[in-house]
Every structure is written in structure tokens, then in C-alpha cells.
From TrEMBL:
It comes from the Bacteria. The keyword Transferase does not apply. Pfam families: AraC_N, HTH_18. This is AraC family transcriptional regulator N-terminal domain-containing protein. SMART domains: HTH_ARAC. Residues 268-306 are annotated as: Disordered. Keywords: DNA-binding, Transcription, Transcription regulation. Transmembrane segments: none annotated. Residues 190-288 form the HTH araC/xylS-type domain. Residues 285-296 have a biased composition (Basic and acidic residues). InterPro entries: Homeodomain-like_sf, HTH_AraC, HTH_AraC-typ_CS, Tscrpt_reg_HTH_AraC_N.
Length: 306
């Protein structure tokens, strides 16, 4: 079965840094249970081959398990973990970074009648579905190239293109299609999300970001919340707190300076919101981040769909 071969390939080729010789392809392996960890889901297809992955985005809870996949079409701050994992039965998954330009290229070559209809509702930035046999087969064939490195340069782009087509014609095809259209509402939201991520330490007016996204304020609020499960200000706060935790992992004794660098003018507000997000005040959390880094090199913080 495709899942059995997928598990074997992931176990054989998993590395501590997640990377593979195939561009944009990552392998995830968890050999022990982990607490929910703040991370970022970028624009990605993630397939679980073994175990159950749970994550929270704003007030939404998601779960996907072996044989299911997630599509993230906007860079989103989430809290995620493999629910169960052990050395004998590790959590296993593979991620493929999605590029709007590559999706747009596939869309341009497709017959209009073969494309899914665009939904009128504001699309979510995340979606979970069961992988079709065709999608799993394509993912397995992509990973087989790890065992024939000389084939990667020629064949990997072809198989990636097939994977994109399987996504476009899947249950979540309408979302993927929106992701590849430069003038779709999801692309407009993605532009605003990127601006907030790039300028997270700066105060901003929602009206200005809505204008940047090319939307009215009401349409921007509706589409932004649908995609991210947060308001723009809540999204900014999540990014600020994640960045603060990354900086504290590197400089645990510089809490006041970190709070200022990420945009907080009130140390008490920073401490209060940090504790609410991570379950401990900055000073206490900073102390426990250093041992975590010594154990596995990650400090419990990730920048990908782990």
C-alpha cells in the first residue's frame, strides 16, 4: 500500500534538520510526545503518514491523521503537536512548500471545465482532507527520488506539478485555486498577512492594511478572519509573541529589551499576554527554553509544519 511505502521512505530519509535533497520537501519525524508548540504553517501541503497531528489556529481546532493532508495557503501562527509518538511508532509526515506562481502555471494550462468552481464564501487559510490514492501515489514517487538522486533534477519538477494538479482537483481544489490566482480574496489576504509579518513591531491602522490588500474595511475584516481565525490585531499579537519567544531562546536575560523590540510599550502587558500564550511568564519560560535547546537543538520552537 502507498501509506506503507510512504512510512518506510520517511523513516529511512528523516534528518534532524528536516530537509531533503529535493527542493521544498521536508520530512517530519517525532519519536516522543510533545507539548503543543507554537510554530508557523507557511504555504504548504503536509501529509501525515503515521500518527495524529493536532493544532490550533485562533479559536479553531484541527486534527489530521495518517492518510490525510493539510493545505495552508497563508503564513499562519499555530500551536501544533503530534498527539502520540514513540521510538517504535513515530509520528511521520512530509511537507511540500507551495508556490502561487507554480499553481498559477498549472491553472493556465488546464481546461476551464476541469477546474473546480470558486466558492463565493471567504475561504479559510487552512483545510484538512483525506488524500486520494492518486495524490498519495504521487507523493510516494516524489520521495522515491531520494533513493535515486540522479533523477531529482529532471523528475522532481514533473512530479511536483502532478501533485499540484491532484490538489487543484481535490476536495480543497477551490482553496488551492484561489491561492494561485493573483486577484483572489485569499491572495489579497495573503498580501496583508505578509505585510503584518514583515512589520509586526509597528502599530498600524486596519484601514491602511485593508487598502494595501485592495479591499474595503468590512470585506477585509471578513476575509481576514475567515483565512486566519483572527482579527488583524490578534494576528499581529500572535506574531509578536512568537518572535519574542524566539528571541528569548537566544537571549534569555534580556526580557525588557525583547518586549520593546517586538513592539510592546508596556512590560506588564507583554508579561501578561506572554503568560497567557505560553503558560509561563517570560522569565520562567526563558529558563526552560535553554535546556530544551541543549536536548534537541530546537528550543521547542519551529518555523515549519512540524
Amino acid at each position: 500500500m502507498a501509506l506503507d511505502e510512504l512510512r518506510d521512505l520517511l523513516i529511512r530519509h528523516a534528518r534532524p534538520d528536516l530537509r531533503t535533497p529535493i527542493e521544498d520537501v521536508l520530512i517530519f519525524k517525532a519519536e516522543r510526545p510533545q507539548p503543543p508548540t507554537p510554530t508557523t504553517y507557511g504555504k504548504v501541503l503536509a501529509v501525515v503518514a503515521q500518527g495524529t497531528k493536532r493544532f490550533a489556529l485562533g479559536d479553531r481546532l484541527y486534527e489530521y491523521r495518517e492518510g490525510q493532508y493539510l493545505v495552508a495557503s497563508v503564513d499562519l501562527p499555530v500551536t501544533a503537536h503530534f498527539a502520540k509518538a514513540s521510538s517504535k511508532q513515530p509520528g511521520l509526515g512530509v511537507g511540500l512548500t507551495l508556490h502561487p506562481a507554480a499553481i498559477a502555471e498549472v491553472l493556465l494550462q488546464a481546461a476551464p471545465d476541469d477546474l473546480p468552481d470558486l466558492c463565493d464564501d471567504a475561504p479559510h487559510g487552512l483545510a484538512v482532507s483525506t488524500a486520494s490514492a492518486e495524490l498519495l501515489d504521487a507523493v510516494v514517487r516524489l520521495l522515491r527520488l531520494l533513493e535515486r538522486p540522479g533523477d531529482i533534477t529532471v523528475l522532481a519538477p514533473l512530479i511536483k506539478r502532478e501533485i499540484l494538479w491532484r490538489l487543484i482537483t481535490s476536495d480543497q481544489g477551490a482553496i488551492v485555486r484561489q491561492f494561485g490566482l493573483p486577484d483572489s480574496s485569499l491572495s489579497h489576504v495573503a498580501r496583508a498577512v505578509q505585510w503584518i509579518r514583515d512589520h509586526y513591531a509597528q502599530p498600524f491602522g486596519v484601514e491602511d492594511v485593508a487598502k494595501l490588500a485592495g479591499m474595503s474595511v468590512s470585506a477585509f475584516h471578513r476575509n481576514f478572519h475567515a483565512a486566519t481565525a483572527m482579527s488583524p490585531i490578534q494576528f499581529q499579537k500572535q506574531i509578536r509573541l512568537q518572535q519574542a519567544r524566539l528571541q528569548l531562546a537566544a537571549a534569555p536575560g534580556d526580557i525588557a529589551a525583547v518586549s520593546r523590540r517586538v513592539g510592546y510599550t508596556s512590560p506588564s502587558q507583554f508579561s501578561r499576554e506572554y503568560r497567557r500564550q505560553f503558560g509561563a511568564p517570560p522569565s520562567q519560560d526563558a529558563k526552560r527554553l535553554t535546556p530544551a535547546r541543549d536536548q534537541d537543538g530546537s528550543a521547542g520552537i519551529s518555523a515549519g509544519p512540524r
